[in-house]
Every structure is written in structure tokens, then in C-alpha cells.
Amino acid sequence: MNSVNVLVVGAGPTGLTLACDLARRGVSVRIIDRDVKFTTASRGKAGIQPRTQEVFDDFGVVDRVLGVGTTRLPFRRYHRDQIVSEAIPYEANDPRPDAPYRRLLFVRQSLVEGILRDKLAETGHTVETGVELLRFEQSAEGVKATLGSAEGSEEVTADYLVGCDGGASIVRKSLGLEFRGFTEEDRKLLVGDVEVDGLDPDAWYQWYDMERGILLLCPLADTGTWQIQASPPMDADGVPMGPSLEALQSAVDRITGMPIRLGNPTWMSTMKRNVRMVDTLRVDRVFLAGDAAHVHPVTAALGANTGVQDAYNLSWKLARVLGGADDGLLDTYERERVPIAEWTLKTACDAGDLIFEAMLAGKGGAEKGLTEESLQLGLHYRGGPLSRDLVEGGALRAGDRAPDSPCPGAVDGAATLFDVFRGPHLTLVGVGAGTAAALAAVAERQPGDVRTVLLNDHPEAYAAEEDRLVLVRPDGYIGLVAAADDAQSVLDYLAALDSFALVED
């Protein structure tokens, strides 16, 4: 029987992020996907949020991801054949020293998945396509899974199994967890990838017509294809039509009254408004992440981003436990990510309301759902089980996202803190010259686990009246803020990670 540390079910952005991060930490991992071929469909095309771009920076692939998308896409709103308004979301969001990525990246999901598969291949791992999870059972020793493929069935044992297998997750269903929430069957959109003749591919064209319906036509960067979303037209019997080129063309004709012709559809589907989540992300040795754990409207562009960040939170904890830390550390995954899932569902629904209000007032379209909050740079774990504040005041608290900053004089040629953070380690940032002795003491005691960096000044993002130590977790969040000379608290925190037991409130 084959064995592995972690079996990842599902090779979308969530599963690929998890597999990439585990593999670079030296964890034995297998990632399977039931699809025989990798999809080229756009699916979640709009887009990659700045916080996720920071994750890809850590992986060393952000330049590749940025290279296949665009951060400048005008939202051009029409009524019939007349332009009503045009807006460019986040146009004023120039990079800052604390946040080098501040704009939404519009890119088709399949291209991002290809880049992550290439990154995974650099570690000697590949996605096993056409392989389906048939069933699993678990015990105190591990998980026993049965996999099926064209070659037959296979028994695999794993220390842990993670379901990243989407809204219809077989892992979630097998666990018997309630996917609480609702589905609005009467609010559907036809969606597909098509070629478009009659429009220049220089904007996201949008029609919000209370009588005729909704139509969105978005060019997919450097592909020659567009993603279309459209209210289903009615057939001769007054029944909403399903996805077909005929139905999509009928919607375009009815809503726009313009000589726009569609052709060569490569993917078509129906999109429903789902708002659902589980309250449990861990059942013993089995975890859920991404759409397997939470689904929501596409407004605010949060779906794949939240899944990537689920995986980023879980992966370093799995690796640490497999390296000898207490299993209780894994309980913090659920404690930290369930509130984020709740925030995501609420934010996506609120964004839909903002768009609808703007549509009724004739004062905008999809751009109204994109706010500073939806960039996800303000998400935090303050008050969480791994967040410890030992000093008062200052710009940052334990649980916050660790900002970037120039760091002149850092080792290994690092120019910014993000350069220092990049990799599977923790990072101890000394804010102010008075932290030098504590940095040296921690580096001597934890030579492989923690990288240290001294900021002689107090940059704006790390501003405080007094010097202090800031310990940054492998996923880019602050675990500990301590006094400048308090090396022992840093060492105690690291030891606590390895003997962690979650205390229920």
C-alpha cells in the first residue's frame, strides 16, 4: 500500500497552493484531480487580489502571474448601444513601501493554475489527473483512502487528507458536514468563453438593464477570447434557455441592440448565486479548504483568493506538525479561517447589494463592488490563538498582516522585508537598533527556523515610540510583538508552537 504525508484532493488554485507550499517544506505530498485534462476555461477570471499576489511573491512566481494578466481594465457601462460611464478600479492605488501590490489583477484562472503546476514540478511533483477519491476512512494512525482511475483502484495511506475539491466536495459530503446557507435558483447567469466580433478588447463591457437583463463581456488578456456572463433568454415556451451559443447570442442581441457576433465557444456553463459555508474545517486528520468549505457570489472577486489563503494558513502548520510539533497546532487553522470565511460571504453579498443599488440608480456597475476592503490586505487574526501582544501601542498588532518595507543592510542582498520573508521560515524583525542583541540571541538558538533582520530606523509601517521585536509567521502574519530586549519571549513562542494545545473559550 502506498503512503504519503498529505493527500490533496483537487488541483485548483487552493490545492495547488497547498501542494506547492508543502513540497518546498520537504513534505511528502500527492495531489489528485478527477479531471483527465487541465481546463482552459476562464472560470474565476476576475481576478487575483493583492494579498494573494503577496502569497505568489513568497512562492517566487508573482512576476509570471502578473505577466499573463492586467491590472488596468476599464469598466465600460452601456445602456443599449450608448456608453453610460467608464471607471478603472483602483487606478489611484500606486504601490507603496508597505504594500507593493495594491490593484486587482485580471487574469484567467487556468493560466494561474498552469503557473502553479510549473512551480510544483520544480519540486519533483505533478498533479495526478483522472484520479478520483472514491472513499476514505480514518483512525488515530492516519487516513486510508481508495482512489480510482482508468487503471483501476488504489489504496493509499496518508497522515492527513485535505479536501480542495470545490463546492460539490466529495470530502465534505463524506464527512457529513452541513453546508449551511442558501442557493438562489431563480438568479442564474449563463457563462462561457467565446470569441467576440464587434468590440475592441480594451475594456470590460457591462450592461445592467432592468428590463432586458444583465450582460458582461470581458476580454481575457492575451488570449483572443472573452468571458461572457448573461441573463438567460426565454425560449418559445417562456422557459429560460440553458448554456449554448444560440442562447448567448440571443442575450447579446436582446440586451445590446448592437452588431456584436459571438463564435467559437470553448466553455459554457450556468452560474447560480450560492452562499454557503461549513463551520468545521477539521475532522481529526481530514481538512477542508477553498470552495469545499465556502462558496459565495463572484462579486468582489474573493473566491479563489480566499482558498489560496486557506491553503497558505494550513500548509506551514501541517509541515510543522509532521516535523514533530504537537497536533494541536492544526486546530488553529479552523479557529483562524472560519471568521475569514464568514467575512468573505458577507463581503461578497454586500458587494452584490452595492452593485444592485448602483444599477437601480444608473450610477455604475461592477466596479461598485470592488472596495479597499476587498483587496484583503486588512484581514487579520487579532485575538487569535497564535497572536500575542506583549507591548502596548505601535502601528502593528499581533495577528496583523506583516507589511513590506525597505530594509537596507539586510543579509543575502535583500532589499525589502518581502525579500527576507520569502521562503518557509519564520522571520524576526528587530525594529530599532536596540533590538540587535535579542536578534543575535534568537539567531544563535534557532539557526534554521528563524531568519532575523534589523531595521535601524522605524519605518512608517512598523512605527512605534519604542524599539520592539516583531515575529512574522511563515504565512506573513505577525505572531508576536515583544519588547526590544525580550529574546526569551520569542524563544518561548517558538517552543509553544511545537507544544500547542488549543484552549477553548
TrEMBL record:
The UniProt record lists the keyword Cell inner membrane: no
Keyword annotations from UniProtKB, A to Z: FAD, Flavoprotein
List the NCBIfam families.
PRK06184.1
Q: What is this protein called?
A: 3-(3-hydroxyphenyl)propionate hydroxylase
> Which InterPro entries does the protein's record reference?
FAD-bd (IPR002938), FAD/NAD-bd_sf (IPR036188), RIFMO-like (IPR050641), Thioredoxin-like_sf (IPR036249)
Which cofactors, by name? FAD
* Protein family according to the UniProt entry: Belongs to the PheA/TfdB FAD monooxygenase family.
Check the record and name the PANTHER family matching this protein: BINDING MONOOXYGENASE, PUTATIVE (JCVI)-RELATED, TRK SYSTEM POTASSIUM UPTAKE PROTEIN
Organism field: Amycolatopsis oliviviridis
Segments forming a coiled coil: none
> One short Pfam family name for this protein?
FAD_binding_3
> Which residues does the UniProt record annotate as the domain FAD-binding?
4-345
Keyword Transmembrane helix attached: no
